[in-house]
Amino acid sequence: MKESLLRALLANALLLASVSPVTAQAPSLVNRFDRLDRNNDRKLTPQELPRADVFQRLDRNGDGVIEKSELPAAAMAPESPAESAFEARVTEHLDIAYGNHERHRIDLYQPAKAKDAPVMVYVHGGGWRRGDKRAVREKADFFTGRGWVFVSINYRLLPEGRHPANVNDVGRALAWVHDHAREYGGDPEKMFVMGHSAGAHLAALVATSETPLREAGKSRAILKGVIPLDTNAYDIGKLMDLGIGFYGQVFGEDPDLWKDASPITHVSKEADIPPFLICFSRGLGNRMNPQRPAQANAFAEALRAAGIAAEVVDASDRNHGEINQWFGRADDEKVTGAAVKFLDSILMDKPAVRENARRRSGPGIGETFVFMKDYFPGTVDAAGHPLAGTETMNFTVHDGRLFAGLGNRNLPVDAAVKVG
Fold first, then answer.
1. I need a labelling partner for 266 at 20 to 30 A (CA). Which of 79, 119, 237, 278 fits?
2. C-alpha dist (Å) from residue 351 to 183, 196, 274, 306, 342
C-alpha cells in the first residue's frame, strides 16, 4: 500500500506530469525526471521541481538536490493504471514539423477532451543565438491545466536566423498552428502568442509587422493577444543610438534593418494589431537596466496612441530570468495573475472592466443617459466581494429634474434631484 501511494506521489511530483507522448506507452517516472532536469546535470533542484513538500520527501539525504539514486525502486517499475490515467490528462506531441529546416519544429501539449480550446503559442528566448522549445518550465502545465492547447516553437538562430529569417519562422509556425489547431482540439479563432526575452521581441514583432504572417498566407488578425515577457528590443534604433554593442552583433549596422526589426515602428492606427500585456523587469542590484522600463512604456504608449489596448506590468521584484521562470506558479499574482485577467477578458470579448455611456431620448422623457459597467468572472470590489454581469445606471433629465435608476428599477420620485 505504501509503495502504491509513493508511486502515485511520484507521478504527481515529477511534473511533466501533465504529459504523455503520442505513443501508446506512457513515459516512465525516470523519463519524467529527465524532462524536468532542464540543464541535464542529472539532479533536480527546487527550481526544477517547485513542490516543496514533494521535494523534501524525495531528497532523502537532505543535500538540497534530488538524484536518480534517491528515487525508490517503485519509480523504476511499470506504471500503475492510476498513473497512466493521470498521464493521459494531457498528450504531448513532440517535434512536429512546420517547415523543412531542422529548427522548424514545434511541441504541442493537448489536454484530454479538448474541443474549441484557446491556444497559446510560446516563443523561447536565448539572445537570438540559443534556446529550445523544450524550456517551457511551468507554462505547459499551467495552460493545459486551464484547458488550453499549449504550443512551444523553435526557430532559426544566429547566424542563420538573422532578421528577418527568425521572425519569418515564427510567422510560419503560427500559420501552421492556425491551420491545424482543430486537429488537436484547439480553436484557431482563439490564438495567442507569448515569448520571453528574444522570444518576447519576436512575439511582439510578428504581431505588429505585417510581413511575417502575410508571407505565411495569414494576417495579424489571427492573433487575439500578445504577452511579451521582458524584452529590451521594441526600438532597436534607440538601443543602437545608446551604443549598446550587444544589439549591433544581433542586428548589424543597417538602420533600415533596425527599423524593420523594431516592433514600435510598425504600430499604426490602420494595422490590425491585437491587444498587448507588456511585462518587464528593470533587474535587480547591479544588473538594473533603465532601458527595459523605458522601452516597455514607450511601446505601450505608441500602441495606445494608435487605439490598440496595451497594459504594462512592472515585475521588478524579480530578475530577467525569473519573470519567465515564475510564470505559471500559483503564487505569481503579479505576472501570471495579470495574464489570467488579460486573457480571460479577451476571451469574453470585453476588457476586465469596461465602462461606457450612451445617450438616448424619447417622447416625454427628455434626455436619458445610460451608463454600463461590465465585469468578467473573478473581478472583486475593494472589499473583496465578487462582481459579475453588467451594472446599468439610467439618468433621465425631465422638467429640470434628474431621475436616476439602477438597472430597470427607477428610484422613487422622492429621490429625484432638482437640477438647474
1. 119
2. 30, 24, 13, 17, 8
Cβ pair 178, 212 in contact under 8 A: no
DSSP 337: I
Q: What is the pLDDT along the chain (420 residues), one digit of tens a residue?
A: 444 444 444 444 443 333 333 332 334 556 667 767 767 788 888 877 766 656 766 777 778 888 877 776 544 444 444 344 435 589 999 999 999 999 999 999 999 989 999 999 999 999 999 999 999 988 999 999 999 999 999 999 999 999 999 999 999 999 999 999 999 999 999 999 999 999 999 999 999 999 999 999 999 999 999 999 999 999 999 999 888 778 989 999 999 999 999 999 999 998 999 999 999 998 776 677 778 899 999 999 999 999 999 999 999 999 999 999 999 998 899 999 999 999 999 998 754 433 333 333 444 445 555 554 544 444 444 455 555 555 555 556 556 666 666 543 333 333 333 333
- Cell output for 412: 422613487
CA 322 – CA 420 distance, rounded (Å): 58
Rg (CA), the chain: 25
* CA distances from residue 402 to 114, 145, 227, 394, 395 in whole angstroms, order as listed: 52, 50, 45, 10, 7
**Scanning the structure block, which residue is given the C-alpha cell 543602437?**
240
